Description:
The structure holds two protein chains of two kinds. Helix content of chain A is 30%, strand content 17%. Chain A is an alpha/beta fold. In chain A, strands 3-2-4-1-5-6-7 form a seven-stranded parallel β-sheet, sandwiched between helices. The model of chain A has no long low-confidence stretch (mean pLDDT 86). Chain B has two domains: 10-222, P-loop containing nucleotide triphosphate hydrolases (Rossmann fold); 226-259.
Amino acid sequence: xxxxxxxxxxxxxxxxxxxxxxxxxxxxxxxxxxxxxxxxxxxxxxxxxxxxxxxxxxxxxxxxxxxxxxxxxxxxxxxxxxxxxxxxxxxxxxxxxxxxxxxxxxxxxxxxxxxxxxxxxxxxxxxxxxxxxxxxxxxxxxxxxxxxxxxxxxxxxxxxxxxxxxxxxxxxxxxxxxxxxxxxxxxxxxxxxxxxxxxxxxxxxxxxxxxxxxxxxxxxxxxxxxxxxxxxxxxxx
Amino acid sequence: xxxxxxxxxxxxxxxxxxxxxxxxxxxxxxxxxxxxxxxxxxxxxxxxxxxxxxxxxxxxxxxxxxxxxxxxxxxxxxxxxxxxxxxxxxxxxxxxxxxxxxxxxxxxxxxxxxxxxxxxxxxxxxxxxxxxxxxxxxxxxxxxxxxxxxxxxxxxxxxxxxxxxxxxxxxxxxxxxxxxxxxxxxxxxxxxxxxxxxxxxxxxxxxxxxxxxxxxxxxxxxxxxxxxxxxxxxxxxxxxxxxxxxxxxxxxxxxxxxx
Lengths: 237, 259
């Protein structure tokens, strides 16, 4: 399949859409772009981008389902849809809710967007989302001092020592030349049926997942934990 | 070497103004030891100008300016590797890092900058305390520092820990610090310093003034001896104002016509 897939993940309000607008602006000069947004209840990005750039866009609501689960389900269809639209690139923007899930896919460009305002320890809390990406875009760097920028950068490097980090004020697009360079050298997805998730999503076999809303381990079965033995079940790094 | 970095010379090439027209100025060279002020009304593009220098703009910022280092496109590590970056910038913003103490912050930054000079963190705190009347302790949380303390710490951090040949200071005078002490210390360290400022005294102390309007550089002045007398007068006024400011802070009523 001659479509490039670019997966953009990151917490809400990190500036994913602002980064994507810059990506589209850059790509449009030499490629046709399609866009998929997966969100939970409400999203406007698809309409906004369609109007601003005149590109084919799609939106999928996950409702009560985990949005990254939904993304995993629909992304192959979306690639086919993008190909039908004659697109060279599909940009898939995640809902950015669970920082444990990493929607990055093999043979895609995984772009993690986090805000410089989210605190020095934030990268550690979002470790899988950062570590499994190809490039980490730090937004809103115009709002902090240079020394703080450096400390934040180091915090990302703790999670992922070789991570490619790009600092930007995404509203203005400052510094994104390094992201554009990666985008321009990204490979096509190739055989979509061979593409896989880079990380294993959190274990999801329990009574919470099937909609039982009681609290406390006494009310559940499957993957349960009491406070005293609530060890990490952190897989997929 | 200036600090731990080789001396560099930076050239700012014109870009475009807010109305989309090309800027009309000769490329501006910034060499070691220079002091430059950037002046102009609010919104005239002063901060954008030093931002261009800080990110080594290559026509990819809103101003479309290009920065050359020693006449060439700067190497990528100047921009992307903090340990190699020859510029330290201090902005008006210091909002995060709520989860660190001043001592932890300095230690972490010294590691990132690969600065292993003896007692670097203690010396930085001592220098910071020359700039502020309210003493900073290594145990203080970054989030509990006052504006003046934060700014003092950031300036000392830029001089000693970042230890770069070029410093960019965005409106340092607004934060309750001893600006005379700051300027004389910066001079004594021999760095190129660029101030964004609304302060007449800071502007007049600089060798060059870059005047901004509507997003573009409209002139570059070298007042030299022409302002010598005026500078002495402004220094006197500045001292008077500082004195009145301190007395007001101390709760005094200011009597008499000459303060």
